[in-house]
Amino acid sequence: MLGKYRKNLRKGFTAYMVSNHGSHWLDKVLEAQWRCKDNLKSYHGPKLPPSVINSRKRKKSAIQSSQEEKAKELLTDFTVGQDALTRATNASFWEWSDGSTLFFWRWQKEYRKE
Description:
Helix content: 55-70%
Order of helices and strands: HHHHH
Distance between the termini: 32 Å
Largest sheet: none
Radius of gyration: 19 Å
Shape: elongated
Number of helices: 5
């Protein structure tokens, strides 16, 4: 019985990700995670003067901002969904030993992003 429950949860989450982020959502997640790790690397070289730092900064285009926003939303959905599925998988019939969480992909669309 728990196996069927877990399978239905996983299928529901996968269907949500496909409908909101496309059929290649997992590839997009891996790419977004890779980009985030690359951006978090800190610069360990010599300290640069502010004029050089400011000249290296570029304004983001509207397309880049939109793509970054979509990537953030994708990573958020994936991370929260992964946490929810992990908690449900580790639950027994009688208790949620890892704690409980909400399954946002089962909500109505108007309540998902609030």
